[in-house]
Amino acid sequence: MTDSAPAEDAAAADRAERRSRLLAAAAITLRDLGDVLTPLAQRFAEGGHELYLVGGSVRDAVLGRLGNDLDFTTDARPEVIAQILGGWADAVWDTGIEFGTVSAAKDDHMIEITTYRADAYDRVGRKPTVTFGDTLEGDLIRRDFRVNAMAVRVAADGSQEFCDPLDGMNDLLAGVIDTPAAPEDSFNDDPLRMLRGIRFVSQLGFTLSERTRAATEEMAGQIDRITAERIQAELDKLICGEHPLEAVDLLVETGLADRILPEVPGMKLTIDEHHQHKDVYQHSLTVLKQAIDLEEGGPDPILRWAALLHDVGKPATRKHEPGGGVSFHHHEVVGAKLVRKRLRALKYPKATVDDVSQLVFLHLRFHGYGEGRWTDSAVRRYVTDAGPLLDRLHKLVRADCTTRNRRRARRLQETYDDLEQRIAELQAAEDLSRVRPDLDGNAIMELLGLSPGPEVGEAWRHLKELRLDSGPLSREDAEAALLQWWAQR
């Protein structure tokens, strides 16, 4: 039998070294914020109050990813917080004051300061009965996860004191998401925490603790207590994280997706027609990964949602063909409708619903291009139908190539290269981003002797179809074509 003590000692020493290194780096980060932290701490101290940087701000400072948003907690009551900020901040908002939170802007920082909380939940809805507490420890234990329950005391003399009564630092070093108290109690208080835990998996690359995951699986149905708006906000943060594939997998495996995004686990039932993936679900995760690789300038939630959801119409359109094949004819049409319905149910903005569903609808259009046999008219229609989504459509179509056959993959990419070149050439000649009829409504009414009404719109649409088919026309040719159509009509 080998002695495990040396290995355990080495692991403990490594954790201690990492802990010291991370805390030292966080201290440097926070000292660099002294122009904000110290004067604010002085104002609270003058009033006889404590001030702590808390929650995600401390976690992110330790991880070296602190942004401009700073969260604090204090023993001062909300009205006192507002008075203290009023003479110092650039702007103050008290819209959250009934929940104990006062917000402010100072230079380029957004600040939220909340009175210690000791809330009670009725375990029917989500909103707690707001009760103010008197201690930092009491405030921290009511927070969602231990990695979010660390604090730094900010003193008037510029000094800092790291406070971690719940051992959140150990969870951070282990890369684990766990609740301060029993997860069942935490999730009964606020079921949104189940989804938040998976969101942190996406954002931080951590894993759920065994007990947190087990409780999520057992209590997934409780998410029904949460409003669609709150779920939507968490889903957007999840999809835009650095590890969304792992998070989506957790949504599916824990059963949360069955309640809030049932179309995603529904794809697990469908083997794709090329038999190159375990199922359409795995294919969709691959497309999401490849779409992320094509992003420029940060996460694009529209592209990411379209990549994940582009094949949700396949289960409903699956058909077994003679010879053992499987087809999914018109799954892009069905999928676009399903996406529109789901995103509306989640209260997404109309623009998001329209954009994601349109990308799903168009994602197969390219496969009719073949060996470059589209007419210029077909290319114009492709660009016009995509509109401002064209760049995202380019990325989605390229990401949708997941075949393991290198020759076929290369051929598909080369064919799309050719289409993009065709688009660029037509764009240079015709400005495809602004395809309009060659006559506007006023010119149509003058030429045909019409008053405003549906006939003008009908004529306008005819000229636009002609423009898409033939390219730009001179005014003389456009007028002749319109008069001919009008006479034949």
TrEMBL record:
InterPro entries: Bact_CCA-adding_enz_type3_sf, HD/PDEase_dom, HD_domain, HDIG_dom, NT_sf, PolA_pol_head_dom, PolyA_RNA-bd, tRNA_adenylyltransferase
Domain HD: 280-396
Alphabetical keyword list: Coiled coil, Magnesium, Metal-binding, Nucleotide-binding, Nucleotidyltransferase, Transferase, tRNA processing
Cofactor(s) essential for the protein: Mg(2+)
A Pfam family annotated for this UniProt entry: HD
Stretches of the chain forming a coiled coil according to its record: 402-436
NCBIfam families named among the record's database cross-references: HDIG, tRNA_CCA_actino
Name of the molecule in the record: CCA tRNA nucleotidyltransferase
Originating organism: Gordonia caeni
